[in-house]
Design goal:
Chain B is α+β, with helices and mostly antiparallel strands. In chain B, 22% of the residues lie in helices and 20% in strands. Chain C is 72% helix and 3% strand. In chain C, a hairpin with a 7-residue loop joins strand 1 and strand 2. The chains are: A mainly alpha, B alpha+beta, C mainly alpha.
Chain lengths: 309, 624, 330
């Protein structure tokens, strides 16, 4: 009998889960749209930056047509005051939302894993210091800090040579999400490492005189990828939601660029007159986040079907 | 002032806010700005007070969390001057209540018996107090109280953010000395000899010697010479002739009793003893749910005050009302909201519901929604040191898509296209500059003319610049920035947005090291004379020179305008300076702002009082 | 035990100190000239300079920090030149020149709103989360379990501010079941209070409720597998007694401690709810202070809420040590 690797087993289990596959499809589709959408859309004349002042009224800037100006040219309507196409904004906004969430997740996972492994394996003073650092970071009301520091830190990034404006703002969000996000994963990883380091294969490696780095990253790390993967699939949608929330509170990308959060934040002002501004980006956001979470759940189940999750 | 309509918005632009007054001197008809656009709409010019009744409560609903200031020497916001002036703070003179723009900016005596007597060619002004003007405890308001109040302006270590005309115009000698600068160097410097009341302990840190050992002390005797009391007559001695000083005394010249003066907290904390008007403060709390309640002042004698009508029994200012809710409540006008008025502006999404166009309301809101000039001219300042080439500045102006920007901030409701810094409703000081029609040899379309801009850049002899654009970071401004970037980009000018935290906007753009190359700005006149517009915006001494302009020729022209006593000649001088400033494009004039407000169904009279661009608080009533 | 206690207290104090330095440094290096903000239209360099000295912005950061910290213990005097200076008695967190009020009194005024918000949400999330979690655990693998898991997934997937806006749109704007939220004290107008708070409670509770459903379910299931429960069952005790007396008591202890920490850390969630529903609590106050660049207020709120979390951490640790003898007190 040919043994199957864990990866193969997990994949086989996932494939049987119809919901998970649907979610995977949606998530992949969204990424595809984010990556290729602007090119393909641009080919068909999709332009999120183009003002279409003919579609809005001179009296207050409201879209002339009902439902936020939905028309054949603008299938999802136009923006209040400028007439920019909502559909185009949605596609371009998806890209930035995903860039922020994916990069921040990546950095969070790397930071959390490395620090968690080191703290857990080394123990002693390093572990204590890392633990206190995590306590300190987790003590900050981080939503408040994100808002308060956005001005100064975005400026710092610009001074460091990051292009002014959106590149700095996006990088700020990625960094600040990561800085406040890693301790959660680090705690999980540390706990896992604490139990792993007592296991035979690690002790065997130590006895064989393996270097510490080898032990950490060749012996221990491969046993951690399951919790890390699960954590990542759950963190990514959380960051998409978080970006939307901070954007709503006034920190985010600047027009003409946009994100889900920026679109929703804008919708607040016109909610009782043009509710489609709220529903269109909101629906896409929820579909995306739910798909991610369902898929993350399915991965977790597939990794450990006996678990009580 | 940045136009901000976000729900996070709090009236942050306090320091910019000044009052704008229409038409002075000779009665002019309501002027119409160049191009198109209404001047003022609302009910007919005569006020029908037959529906007025004594009694009731008027509610003032605001999204602000707190009064900017409650101190006669520090209040500098039009709406606040109007509110406190109409209720608890009397002045020597005041603006007449009238929906007519010209009449509404004409003066009437208030505490004084007349509009003041000018002698010595306008260098000395005397006002005599009426009988029966009292504080809320019944004691007389004396000449000394006014003198003391005015002297607080000089204690700008504490009494800041208010109008400073007293220290600019009163004849106080200047002392020369030395002071340590921020960088540690010792430089000769000069200051006024009077530092305000002694109890303010202002320490200017100016020394008579270069070793900085002999501090120059406060010299109150200089003030005693500049402002003198003779019985009920107060006399102001000025350092130069000021033809319209009786307008000046409406700003920061209120009375304060020395024994009541608590300094920093004056007016904001109990016990409230500061009233000399028909109402007094009963309570004041800030934040969401905060209230200021004014009740009748029994010691106010109507015969001493023919100016204020004092109809309602009570005023209640409700702070921190969600702007969406605020509009909805007054639109519905149910219960107490029937006698409520809006402090602030109607949200953009409701404009189309309330108005059919900027001149007319829909039938449902007829007579209670107002659309009219607000106090401000809006412009983009250009730092002339960073953009020294006039052709480049002109190219920026010509390329700018003003039509799209206007649409973004509310279209026809936001205002008319501006052709200079001076707003037409100031009266004779305004004359169309022809900036967009004649100056470039052909009309510049509102949507911008990138080709003409490119031509101007070619003529400038320098390459198309890369510029940094400052604006207060709000959603509406962000979209405006996108339009600025796109439209200047068409002419080859690269613009990078540099949004600033709204609360810090002016503190940053005032620092040339921290500010960008150009940015948003707004200004309103203090009284109907362009002397309160052009000098502040175009000279370093004026205090609001965001363009960092310091041009000897401009300075000389401004000085000539300020010292011109013949009002007609002065008007011509201001018109000339306004035109030349537009052509030199120290600032890009954008809009003469309009704003919209609404009141309940059972409160009147509802009109835009031109004096402060506000409600006429002092004659408002609850209807029978 | 005493040694452990002393060590934990010292650790907490050192964390608080580090925290105060971190907060102070973060916020006092913001750009823009705070002194310029105090000075109006006809501002001159001299006035700005004066105000810089008056407000202490010309001091080196360390001096500013020391003044700030000593203010907490001994009080401070602001604007000493004013005829009646502003005396800020200890514990003084600063004075907001923007709001003409002491930072502490602003916080004290806003705190009850956030307190009520947090308490209400807490009750909802514990009641819903724990009961559904137990329910699901008892019916593991059957449809009620799946349903609860599904609901919980949607609950924590919904970005809470979008959910808040949805509620606002439908319940308040579209269907008009509730008036526009406007905070009143529960002692003045209980009905108005409930009408205002119900939506914010739901918005704040939903994320935690979803999380606690899963947490509770997993805890209970784990305990079921523990020896002592098996023993209890083997002894032939009624299932009801097994579940209530043994499994739940053991299983819920970690949930209670987690809940304590989450309650202390609610401010983050409160910021969003309070802003959507216009509640004058700490979250709204902090956003306002940021928009107005009200430095003393931002510093005060951050310091206070962060300290709260550290102190809560400490208490929970202590409780844990008392409740669970397995924790070694060394």
């Amino acid at each position: 009998m040919v043994g199957r690797s864990l990866r193969q087993i997990v994949w086989a289990r996932l494939r049987r889960d119809k919901v998970a596959m649907l979610c995977l499809f949606i998530v992949t589709f969204m990424y595809a749209v984010a990556i290729f959408g602007p090119f393909i859309g641009g080919f068909f004349g999709l332009d999120p930056y183009k003002l279409d002042t003919a579609t809005i009224s001179d009296l207050g800037g409201r879209p002339v047509l009902p439902n936020g100006g939905i028309s054949p040219q603008h299938p999802l309507g136009v923006e209040w005051g400028t007439g920019r196409d909502i559909f185009a904004q949605l596609i371009f906004g998806l890209r930035i939302s995903l860039v922020i969430a994916t990069s921040a997740t990546f950095i969070t996972v790397v930071l959390g894993t490395v620090i968690g492994i080191v703290a857990g394996y080394t123990g002693g003073l390093t572990d204590t210091l890392m633990g206190r650092l995590m306590d300190l970071i987790l003590a900050f009301p981080f939503l408040l800090i994100i808002l308060a520091l956005s001005g100064v830190l975005t400026q710092r990034l610009t001074n460091l040579g990051v292009p002014e404006g959106n590149p700095s703002r996006i990088l700020y969000l990625i960094l600040v999400f990561s800085v406040f996000g890693w301790p959660y994963l680090a705690r999980i990883v540390r706990g896992q490492v604490l139990s792993l380091r007592e296991r035979e294969f690690v002790e065997a490696a130590v006895a064989m005189g393996a270097r510490r780095r080898r032990i950490l990253f060749s012996e221990i790390l491969p046993n951690l990828w399951a919790p890390i993967l699960v954590y990542a699939t759950l963190t990514l949608p959380a960051y998409i939601g978080l970006e939307a929330a901070v954007s709503f509170l006034g920190v985010g990308v600047l027009p003409p660029e946009t994100t889900f959060g920026a679109m929703l934040a804008n919708s607040v002002n016109y909610m009782n007159v043009v509710p489609t501004y709220l529903f269109i980006p909101g629906t896409v956001l929820v579909v995306l986040v739910v798909s991610f979470n369902l898929f993350g759940d399915a991965v977790r189940d597939a990794l450990d079907p006996k678990a009580i999750h | 002032m940045a136009k901000t309509q976000t729900w996070l918005y709090r009236a942050f632009a306090l320091s910019v806010t000044a009052t704008l007054i229409t038409a002075c001197g000779g009665a002019t008809t309501t002027p119409t700005p160049a191009g198109s656009g209404p001047a003022s709409t609302g009910p007919a010019a005569t006020v029908d007070t037959s529906a007025a009744k004594k009694g009731g409560t008027i509610y003032v609903l605001t999204q602000a969390k707190v009064w900017n200031q409650v101190d006669p020497q520090r209040i500098y916001t039009g709406e606040d001057l109007a509110f406190f002036g109409g209720t608890i703070m009397r002045g020597l003179t005041a603006y007449k209540f009238s929906p007519d723009a010209a009449e509404g900016t004409s003066l009437v005596p208030d505490m004084a018996t007349d509009l003041g007597k000018a002698t010595d060619g306008g260098k000395t002004w005397a006002f005599t107090l009426r009988d029966g003007v009292t504080w809320q405890d019944g004691t007389d308001v004396t000449c000394a109280d006014i003198k003391y109040g005015v002297s607080r302006t000089f204690a700008d270590n504490v009494i800041n953010q208010g109008p400073t005309y007293a220290s600019v115009y009163l004849d106080i000698p200047t002392v020369q000395g030395f002071a340590k600068k921020k960088d540690g160097s010792v430089k000769p410097t000069s200051a006024l000899a009077f530092y305000g009341p002694l109890k303010y302990n202002k320490n200017l840190k100016i020394f008579s010697d270069e070793a900085l050992t002999k501090p120059i002390p406060n010299d109150p005797s200089t003030y005693d010479k500049a402002v003198t009391c003779d019985g009920k007559t107060i006399t102001f001695h000025l350092n130069k002739p000021i033809a319209d000083f009786n307008y000046t005394v409406t700003l920061g010249f209120g009375a304060v009793r020395e024994k009541d003066d608590t300094g920093e907290t004056y007016g904001t904390v109990a016990p409230f003893t500061i009233s000399n008007g028909p109402y007094k403060v009963e309570s004041y709390t800030t934040g969401n749910g905060g209230k200021m309640v004014l009740v009748r002042n029994e010691n106010w004698k109507p015969e001493s005050d023919p100016y204020r009508k004092a109809y309602p029994d009570k005023w209640e200012v409700d702070f921190g009302v969600d702007p969406k809710v605020l509009d909805q409540r007054i639109m519905a006008s149910a219960g107490n909201d029937a006698t409520a008025i809006q402090y602030g502006q109607i949200q953009p999404e409701n404009l189309g519901v309330i108005f059919t166009d900027p001149d007319n309301t829909t039938a449902k809101y007829k007579g209670r929604a107002i659309s009219g000039f607000d106090p401000y001219s809006r412009y983009y300042w250009i730092n002339v040191n960073k953009v020294p080439n006039v052709k480049i500045r002109q190219a920026m102006a010509v390329a700018l898509d003003r039509a799209a920007i206007r649409l973004n901030i509310g279209g026809a409701f936001a205002g008319a296209f501006a052709d200079g810094l001076v707003k037409p409703n100031i009266g004779g000081d305004y004359k169309a500059t022809g900036l967009w029609t004649d100056f470039f040899g052909k009309p510049v379309p509102d949507g911008g003319d990138p080709e003409l801009a490119k031509k101007l850049i070619n003529e400038s002899g320098v390459p198309a610049p890369k510029l940094v654009f400052n604006f207060a970071d709000t959603p509406v401004n962000q979209k405006t920035a996108a339009i600025v970037i796109a439209s200047l980009g068409k002419a080859g000018i690269t613009v990078t947005p540099a949004p600033l935290e709204p609360g810090k906007y002016y503190s940053i753009v005032f620092d040339p090291a921290a500010s960008g190359d150009f940015g948003t700005g707004g200004w309103g006149a203090d009284w109907p004379n362009a002397s309160t517009v052009l000098p502040p915006l175009l000279t370093q001494a004026g205090g609001w020179d965001l363009s960092q302009l310091d041009d000897p020729a401009v300075n000389a022209a401004i000085e000539a305008g300020l010292t011109e006593l013949d009002r007609t000649k002065q008007m011509a001088k201001w018109q000339e300076i306004n035109k030349s400033a537009a052509e030199n494009m120290y600032t890009i004039p954008t809009f003469f702002g309009l704003s919209q407000t609404i009141g309940g169904t059972k409160v009147g009279p509802l009109y835009r009082w031109a004096a402060y661009g506000s409600w006429p608080y002092g004659e408002m009533y609850v209807t029978k | 035990m005493a040694a452990y206690l002393v060590r934990r207290v010292l650790l907490m104090i050192s964390l608080l100190l580090i925290l105060s330095v971190a907060v102070f440094l973060l916020f006092n290096m913001l750009p823009g000239d705070p002194a310029r903000l105090t000075c109006g239209k006809s501002c001159t360099e001299a006035v700005i300079e004066q105000n810089r000295q008056r407000l202490g912005y010309d001091d080196p950061p360390l001096t500013q920090y020391v003044k700030f910290m000593s203010g907490i213990f001994t009080g401070r005097v602001f604007s000493p030149e004013s005829p009646e200076p502003i005396v800020c008695a200890a514990p003084c967190l600063g004075y907001s020149f923007n709001r003409h009020e002491q930072v502490l009194s602003l916080i004290v005024r806003a705190a009850p709103v956030t307190f009520w918000l947090a308490i209400g949400a807490f009750i909802i999330w514990i009641a819903v989360g724990v009961s559904l979690g137990i329910f699901a655990a008892l019916r593991r693998g059957r449809w009620p379990d799946r349903l609860v898991l599904g609901v919980s997934l949607i609950g924590y997937s919904l970005p809470s501010f979008f959910f808040g806006l949805l509620l606002m749109f439908f319940v308040v704007i579209q269907w008009q079941w509730l008036p526009y939220p406007s905070y009143v004290s529960p002692f003045e107008d209980p009905v108005g209070f409930l009408q205002t708070m119900i939506l914010p409670w739901i918005v704040l509770a939903i994320l935690y409720a979803a999380f606690y459903m899963r947490l509770t379910r997993n805890q209970v299931l784990e305990v079921f597998n523990d020896d002592f429960v098996r023993t209890a069952r083997a002894k032939g005790l009624p299932e009801r007694t097994v579940v209530v007396k043994h499994a739940l008591r053991a299983g819920l202890t970690p949930i209670v401690t987690a809940a304590g920490l989450d309650l202390a850390g609610l401010l983050g969630g409160a910021i969003i709810s309070e802003n959507i529903f216009n509640l004058p609590g700490l979250g709204a106050l902090s956003v306002e202070s940021i928009t107005n660049s009200d430095l003393p207020l931002i510093t005060g709120i951050t310091l206070l809420t962060a300290s709260l979390i550290i102190v809560a951490n400490f208490i929970v640790d202590l409780l844990y040590a008392v409740v669970d003898p397995r924790v070694r007190l060394v």
